[in-house]
Design a protein that fits this description.
single chain; 93 residues; mainly alpha; 3 helices; 77% helix
Length: 93
């Protein structure tokens, strides 16, 4: 039972990371963001990336948007820490 929970938690975070990666790739080809799959990827990743974007904007100091969106990188780091934490937490139970 514990193994199933660990795999579920692990693959949940992996799915989110793959969706963020797909969104980054889709941003290079604007026509991909207009189809139903692109809209689904956008709607699933925006709740994660929007707070990261605000944080990056505050950390940049000037409050202006930057040419490169670093929010996916920050989201990957945060998701990696959360994934490690939750897998370790379930593993200790």
């Amino acid at each position: 039972m514990k193994t199933i929970i660990i795999y579920t938690v692990y693959w949940f975070f992996e799915l989110i990371k793959y969706l963020i990666l797909a969104r980054c790739i889709m941003s290079w080809i604007p026509s991909l963001t207009r189809n139903p799959i692109g809209k689904l990827v956008y709607s699933l990743t925006e709740p994660i990336l929007s707070p990261m974007r605000k944080l990056v904007s505050k950390l940049s100091g000037n409050g202006r948007s930057m040419m490169i969106d670093f929010s996916p990188i920050l989201a990957f780091i945060l998701l990696w820490f959360l994934q490690s934490f939750f897998v370790s937490l379930v593993n200790m139970l």
